[in-house]
Design brief:
Shape of chain A: globular
Oligomer: homodimer
CATH architecture of the largest domain in chain A: 4-Layer Sandwich
Distance between the termini of chain A: 35 Å
Largest interface: A-B, 39 and 39 residues
Structural class of chain A: alpha+beta
Helix content of chain A: 25-40%
Number of helices of chain A: 24
């Protein structure tokens, strides 16, 4: 099958049984890959309300048709499972090289089920696969474990998807780390790996599927290679943190647990600040010319190993401004620790910020914090917290459960300081400033999420943006704090499009434009597809993820947002009013209706059938 | 504006005032043209429940961006007004040369409002326009009137959109005849012209808008010129009646007022039959290589003037099998009369068939029929009826009102024999055989309609069909009598697509395929559009037409079908069961829901807003 291997590896860790399954072209064309395949497995094979950390949960590593094609942005893959933070749909999405390697090793996805008696890792190479003992790897940080695997198998080019101690300890927001620095960060996928005693997946592949028109893909790739500096040069130069000064200026830089939106040390942690201090190199994902990934080196007062990469925007926000830390070296150290232990930097930072606010407001004392002076801005305390969380030591035991569960246990109003939706911590975008994105946090199937969301900034004119969004919708700049019908129409298309990009295995940072994405899918698969079909794929998968949550008992009431965001931002110079509860609720209801869901947020039978998901309607009983 | 003139001519017949209006690119890109512009005017400018034959009604002649481009299928235009048969949304769509001529004369549409004191015609040439006295033309058949206009203006290449006596007499299904043989047939647009004392629109144009990429359009045109025989050669060879034998064989040839689906004389009236007898030539519409139009000549026992063209499939059905007439010469004569008098051949045949069944069942007698022996198969009686209807003479006065109104007046169960939906007569497709199309009759905004409908046959594999429907939906052959969710999903997309083709001014017979249609729009307008945007245009306009009817008081109860189609077809060899009322209702409800309408068939505010029609939601008060 062009663009696909047509093979999916199923691994039952309980029995050790492994087999290769073939689903056929019609299946692929409906579900495509990425979250499409994750969601299919979660709905079809995983029972409702299953404990995400039980052997009944299933973990999928899913590639899209574009994963591993020789063109920028093709490094993406998606890790899926029921979500230890929310109990509902879960996935962590990731760039790097692992996805391409797995594609070239002959598979489109892996399904991991059951639980191994003792630690194992999965070794896949060019169509072969085996489970291997991981006793010696267990307890190791990701760098050490990767080195051991490469040594054991005698190949230094092996790619790894791995957990460190945080995953082993089932920290609910442990992530899966690919090649030490690419995190499938959200939704606690590392905890699921840990619960299964699966330390790592190691992959080496030199083949892969034929492409329908490799020459054409090469032409597109060369075009982007020639033009990327003009189209997205800022991403190369300053990385994802390039926008920090602008966020600070508009009051949209989450600071001190979202109490304010400006941070006095913003310049230190910005892309420019990093470039002028600790940046030693830029790195790319598979086949990508953009090189938006940072490499940093610090020797004093911390040592930060460049092999662990460098912090991205979400990290400088979460482990910088959000915890009040303006020392970029401390941020880089925290980033390194998270990658070594397999912790989601977003959730880790947001949880620590929560703990800091609790401490400052007197809900936690030194008796609770193992003596840490857990104030905003205390970099040492922040780094100590990362360690404690990864090892579930002292206060780390409580905080490893995530801010929602911790707040419940602390009580006395702590829940007001827990910045989460459905149990998953907020990324570093201020919902009072980017209000469309705030609605997106509320309705995302994974809990607060920034990847499958509207990025209001992209609605503004800019190089490539007319190409990036060429739906023909009359998109004129709409205010960040506009969440009216026109904005929410665009929002609906935007989240479906983001959902599609995930299914395709294509990075949202590459401004191919929608037409060219269609071209890439055609040149890869040979399918005579078009934007109408592809938008339906995005909508189908967004709807399927919703349906999984509905089956798990989620209702419209769970599509919420911390109370804080309906109150004036505590900033010396607020640039907008807070979210208005009625406007926000109207926007949510608009989105449901535009998606063909009921006012309770339940996909209707007809909508499911019209998307080819009649079997899901039966499953839901709608 | 590339592809458009950017000019719309408004003519107020009451005051004689005329002016040119410019709507701007954003308007055009939302409404495109064709039914898009018709519907916009009917919703925006014509009050709810206005009498379609009053001066308050407005008549629009609307072109699409593709109208008049140098490529096959570009001859289409749409005539719109409130519908004298239904009281709701009305339009008649037409090929030929008039649309292209108007485009080349510098306009994208004409709005005609008010009512002239005395007969006038509108003369438009290369941006100029004037109203001229039509006293001498009034009462003339279309041929004579056209000759008089051409002589008066001294140009034999003038194109005309015109009414004959039937339009003048406001026969409710009078049509607009372009150049003697191209009928904007449905919805009584000729009656509206008559009510306004507007005899004709005469046009001559030698300019027209620039095209974004005329060279590329030329390439596409040449490609189709090379390949049309392979893709659609049957349409050239046998015209639209080529499928008659197959329809007869499957029991789908409406016969004797839809009492049966097979006709013993089918071979006579088929494309093959016509070719072997009266066919003397084939003709094309503007820029089209396909030449699906027939030219026939008959000398005995009738004379049929080839200038009036020849009957198409709908005509050989309506004025052939449906009235039981198997003499193709009589059919051709009836066709000529309809074109001379400006009568919709579909409605005329269906009304006469209704009258014949009433006669045979004893509800009408010779006392009612002016002595006519009005039995099925009586060709002379059929021809006499055409004359009487056009002139509203004798029984023609009653029948000129259409079968729904006539049945009401006759009473005694006559309504069971009136084959109409919402007051508009059925085209020649048997809803028990093509059940998806049967549902389409029910829900069409114009009443029973075959143009904006599913054509189940196109779901079957065939040359060009995989290209014609490339939505990526897994379209495998579905049974004609399947109206389940998969079929209705396809149906929903198909009617929206048909709605789009109308907005574009592109003929549905040309198997460009959807991708190439997108290419043609891009090459014409220069807009960076795509199938997603264009499908939304189709959906937007299908929804807007619905909204017009909702405002006029139509409800789901009006989306009906004659009782006959829920009963076994009266055929010696029925090939399917009749429509099942529950299945049919489920299909209707599926369509409403898939369109984002309530179970009462009312577009929701969110759906309207998401389509950029928030102003319509305000208008409807939803």
């Amino acid at each position: 099958m062009l663009g696909y291997n047509g093979k999916i590896l199923r691994v039952d860790l309980s029995s050790g049984r492994m087999n290769v399954e073939e689903y056929g072209e019609r299946f692929y064309r409906q579900y495509f890959g990425g979250r499409g395949f994750n969601a299919y497995v979660q709905m079809k094979e995983v029972p409702a309300k299953v404990d995400p950390l039980s052997p009944e949960n299933k973990l999928t590593i899913s590639l899209g048709p574009l994963t591993g094609i020789p063109a920028s942005g093709s490094g993406r893959s998606s890790v899926g499972a029921k979500n230890p933070l929310t109990g509902g749909y879960g996935e962590g999405d990731v760039g790097g090289f692992m996805g391409a390697e797995l594609k070239h090793a002959g598979f489109d996805a892996i399904i991991v089920e059951g639980r191994a008696d003792k630690p194992v890792y999965l070794w896949i190479h060019d169509g072969e696969f085996e489970l291997r003992d991981a006793a010696a790897l267990w307890g190791q940080n990701t760098l050490e474990a990767q080195e051991m695997i490469r040594a054991e198998l005698g190949d230094n080019r092996i790619r790894t998807a791995m957990i460190g101690p945080a995953g082993e300890n089932m920290v609910r927001y442990a992530c899966v780390i690919n090649d030490l620095k690419h995190a499938a960060g959200r939704c606690g996928m590392g905890a699921v790996m840990g619960s299964k005693n699966l330390k790592a997946i190691a992959v080496r592949g030199k083949g892969g599927p034929e492409l329908a028109d490799a020459k054409l893909i090469g032409e597109y790739a060369r075009w982007f290679g020639k033009n990327f500096m003009e189209l997205a040069g800022g991403m190369y130069d300053l990385g994802t943190s390039g926008g920090v000064p602008n966020l600070d200026a508009t009051g949209g830089l989450p600071t001190r647990n979202f109490q304010t939106g400006t941070f006095e040390y913003f310049a230190n942690i910005s892309g420019e600040g990093m470039k002028n201090t600790i940046l030693i190199d830029r790195e790319n994902c598979y086949a990508c010319v953009l090189r938006c990934k940072r490499v940093v080196k610090v020797d004093d007062p911390y040592t930060v190993n460049p092999l662990y990469g460098g912090p991205e925007y979400e990290t400088v926000g979460a482990l910088g401004s959000c915890v009040g830390v303006g020392d970029v070296k401390a941020v880089a150290k925290a980033n390194e620790l998270c990658n070594a232990y397999s912790l989601d930097t977003i959730a880790t930072g947001t949880v620590i910020a929560f703990a800091m606010e609790c401490y400052e407001k007197g809900l936690l004392t030194k008796a609770d914090t193992d003596g840490l002076e857990l104030r905003f801005g205390n970099a040492e305390a922040m780094l100590a917290m990362v360690e404690k969380i990864a090892r579930r030591e002292g206060i780390g035991e409580l905080m490893a459960e995530g801010s929602a569960r911790a707040a419940k246990q602390i009580g006395r109003g702590a829940e007001e300081f827990a910045m989460h939706v459905k149990g998953q911590e907020l990324p570093m975008h201020e919902p009072r400033i980017k209000q469309g994105l705030g609605v997106g946090y509320s309705v995302s199937p994974t809990g607060a999420d920034h990847v499958h969301n509207i990025h209001d900034t992209t609605m503004r004119p800019g190089p490539g943006m007319d190409r990036l969004y060429s739906w023909g919708i009359q998109v004129e700049p709409l205010a960040f704090n506009d969440i009216g019908p026109e904005k929410m129409t665009y929002f609906t298309h935007a989240v479906n499009w983001a959902s599609l990009q995930n299914c395709l295995g294509m990075c949202i940072f590459i401004p191919w434009g929608q037409d060219r994405i269609v071209d890439l899918v055609k040149a890869t698969t040979g399918w005579n597809t078009n934007l109408f079909e592809l938008m339906q794929v995005g909508e189908r998968m967004n709807t399927l993820c919703r349906a999984i949550n509905v089956r798990d008992g989620f209702t419209a009431k769970d599509d919420t947002l911390p109370k804080r965001f309906f109150q004036q931002i505590g900033d010396p110079k607020p640039t907008t009013d807070p979210l208005d509860p009625k406007e926000w609720n109207d926007a949510k209801q608009f989105y449901y209706a535009a998606m063909g869901w009921t006012p309770e947020g339940v996909p209707t039978r007809v909508k499911l059938q019209a998307l080819g998901l009649g079997w899901v309607a039966d499953e839901l009983g709608v």
